[in-house]
UniProtKB/TrEMBL annotation:
UniProt superkingdom: Bacteria
Statement: the UniProt record of this protein carries the keyword Cell cycle: no
SUPFAM superfamilies with a match to the protein in the record: P-loop containing nucleoside triphosphate hydrolases (SSF52540)
UniProt cross-references to CDD domains, sorted A to Z: ABC_BcrA_bacitracin_resist (cd03268)
The keyword Nucleotide-binding is annotated on this UniProt entry: yes
Matches recorded under InterPro entries: AAA+_ATPase (IPR003593), ABC_transporter-like_ATP-bd (IPR003439), P-loop_NTPase (IPR027417)
Enzyme class: hydrolase
EC number per UniProt: 3.6.3.-
Name of the protein in question: Putative ABC transporter ATP-binding protein YxlF
Length: 374
């Protein structure tokens, strides 16, 4: 297990890591996420004794890295795959590390096989592709058959087959009861690989929970509703009914309705009651990427300035349908139910989805709205 308590690192006036406390438990793949410059590498370097904390501490199985007897046997890490002497052959590189740590030579050939570099064992590493370098870095981490493994961006430069291989390897290592801590910017990959996520922003802990909980807590679920036919009539009738029932309705570029604040069965009932036929009624959960962007948007240190050409490739925004002007905007009560709140999707110029906690709160607004849509 890795345990950080109040872990802090300052470089002059810059606080790279700010009072981080977390545990990375065995038997799981724990993803370590954060925007560029949020302190992931610095945290990993402190775990591995390469940087000394300014305050707080981090231990591996109860001891700081520097106090672990024969650390290579306890902890394996891939921090920088390029940190290899280019003139050395892959096998010689691994052998030198094995000899320093009292690891038998046959283990070198084992790990070369595990990472699929048997045929490149006698090649000099300066001729290695990015992906081969990553594989060699992973082989180095596995050399001591350690219980704790740290990987900083392990799939960087790997092709799809390589990415799948890394995913399976991480999961297998965790299934063997090892502690696997892996940083990545590839959200879709983390969603498939990690059971647990630690998310940081500007050196501080933003979230420490299971991947599933993270998505659920930070996602804005909505229903996509497509009314039969191309005409606006069904859309307007149903949209008005949904709004009166407490739903928040936005229109997608293809004419489908995006509904928040109402459960799917309720939407289906309202469609039935208003005699509107549906071609689609589907639930949507945010992806890990959306959930992550939502959580870290205020912690991003490096953002680009507006590019005047951006509108050329911006997706068409969601729009507020016409009938929304008629059915008055919902009154927001002081306390809203958490599941009814969802910020607008990134890039949307539309008003936020902000629903009352109970459809009953909508009654005064609904009474003022016309019965028939325009
Ligand atoms: N040796 C150093 N001296 C001064 N500042 C540093 C040093 N190392 C890191 N920093 C700063 O600390 C902050 C955190 O850097 P770090 O590399 O840990 O972030 P990161 O989350 O790994 O970023 P990325 O995702 O881009 O790799 C950054 O602002 C960085 O500039």
């Amino acid at each position: 297990m890795i345990e950080a308590v109040g872990l802090t690192k300052r470089f002059g006036a810059k606080t790279a890591v700010d009072g981080l406390s977390f545990q990375v438990k065995p038997g799981h793949v724990t993803g370590f996420l954060g925007p560029n410059g949020s302190g992931k590498s610095t945290t990993m370097r402190m775990i591995l004794g390469l940087d000394r904390p300014t305050a707080g501490q981090v231990t591996i199985n109860g001891l700081p890295f520097r106090e672990l007897p024969n650390a290579q046997r306890h902890v394996g890490a891939l921090l920088d795959a390029k940190a290899v002497h280019g003139g050395r052959r892959a096998r010689a590189h691994l052998l030198s590390i094995a000899q320093l740590s009292g690891i038998p030579e046959k283990r070198v050939d084992e790990v070369l096989g595990v990472v699929g570099l048997q045929d490149a064992a006698r090649q000099r590493t300066k001729g290695f592709s990015l992906g081969m370098g990553q594989r060699l870095g992973i082989a180095t981490a596995l050399l001591g058959d350690p219980q704790v493994l740290l990987f900083d961006e392990p799939v960087n430069g790997l092709d799809p087959e390589g990415i799948l291989w890394v995913r399976n390897l991480m999961r297998q290592l965790a299934a063997e009861g090892r502690t696997v801590f892996v940083s990545s910017h590839l959200m879709s990959e983390m969603a498939l690989t990690a059971d647990h996520l630690i998310v940081i922003g500007r050196g501080r802990l933003l979230s420490d929970m299971s991947t599933q909980d993270f998505i659920t807590h930070n996602s804005a679920g909505f229903a996509r509703v497509r009314v039969a036919g191309n005409g606006p009539d069904g859309r307007v009738i149903l949209g008005t009914a949904l709004t009166k029932a407490g739903g928040r309705v936005l229109q997608e570029p293809d004419g489908a309705l995006r509904v928040t604040g109402l459960e799917l069965p309720r939407i289906s009932d309202l469609a039935h009651e208003t005699g509107v036929r549906l071609w689609e009624l589907s639930p949507h959960r945010a992806s890990l990427e959306e959930a992550y962007m939502r959580m870290t948007q205020s912690s991003v240190e490096y953002t680009s300035t507006d590019d005047p050409r951006a509108e050329l490739w911006e997706p068409e925004p969601l729009t507020v349908p016409d009938w929304e002007e008629e059915v008055q905007a919902p009154v927001v009560p002081a306390e809203t139910a958490a599941s009814f709140f969802a910020p607008p999707p990134p890039g949307s110029a539309a008003r936020p989805f902000l629903m009352p906690g109970s459809p009953a709160d909508l009654a005064p607004a609904a009474q003022n709205s016309p019965e028939e849509p325009r």
